[in-house]
Amino acid sequence: MAMAAVLVVLGARLYEACAVYDSSLLLPADGDASTDAGPPAPCLHVQPPGHPDGGATAGGTLQVVAAFKTIDIGLTADASAPRPSFGYDLDGVCTCPGPPSCVQVHGDGAPTTCDDDAGGNTGIDNTDIDLFRALPVAASVGTAQIDDGLQSGQYSLLLVIDGYNGMANDDKVTVSYYVSNGVNRTADGGIPTPTFTGGDLWTIDPDSLQDKPQDPASIPSCAHNPQCGSVFSDEAAYVSNYVVVARFNQLTVAFGDRSFLGGATMALSTAVIVGQLQPVPLQQGGFGYDLVGGTIAGRWPTKALLQTLATIPDSLDDGGFLCGHGNLYYEIIKATVCGAADISQNQANDNTNAACDAVSVGMTFTAGPAQLGAVLAVPPAPAGCADGVVPFTDNCP
Length: 397
Known about the structure:
By secondary structure, this protein is of the alpha+beta class. It has one domain. The chain contains 5 helices and 10 strands, in the order H-E-H-H-E-E-E-E-E-E-E-H-H-E-E. It has an 8-stranded antiparallel beta barrel with strand order 1-2-3-5-6-7-8-9.
């Protein structure tokens, strides 16, 4: 019942979000409905910074390594509060008052899932925030649990910028991204608390590597190691006014297994990572870079989203997970996911009358100086509803 109440509020809020963009509903101050309120404001199409203007040099030698220390997925104690403006316009349209870029599948009378829930005309796509807010206990403890795992060294996400010239503008750098299973373990298996001042050695998950080793322990360090090429890499990234911009066809965002999200991961398509480089002193001397005001945006296919629910604990079922037909929360959340899908997982399908089969994603982060450590595999996160050795799978509708 509590979940149903949250979703009722969610539905009402989405309706209101669209209504504010409908100029036909706005009466002039004198109450004369026939008065022309004027054309709607133009869509701003909020995007990451573009390539730097002419004159930017490339071919630097600096390497920047940064580990995420905070992630904000837009949770709030008030599930009906407007979505914050995390993310970018991913599909090039302002949905509400304009039409969506794909065919949204809703029940009879359900409103369109709108962009830019906080108001305005940015076109920002970040419907994932609604879904996180609908999960059990998410609003009260979610972000704190995610950040606790990062700051205690249990897990992280790593960015490596290679070939940077150290200047405000660099027309070409290579950005690699890794999932980390935490800080390098001590001899007795302990996990040191990271300082984010450049001295921490962070492990690399084998699934982040182009050539996944049969024996992860055979790679004791990924620092400047060609064996550690990432499957998530952009060789055409750039820095514009100290803001790094990198784009990825695929990107996995993981939250460790200690938070309310269990072992859930976000398998994004057509993703972008943006962050401002800010010089900071290093523990060993010299300086490195924090990443501040960071953003991750992308498209989360509904099939991948539903599958990963099998790793999220069900707070009403001791030892159970949010998956399987007959599970109350799962059925409600599935209906919400399928109804909230607002974008195509394939960018080429935008504005082609294709069905919406993904949820737009926007989140923010900060990161601090780090070093690449050993390759470390960890046991897969506990999950439910597996059919023998086949992981749980489902799809909309």
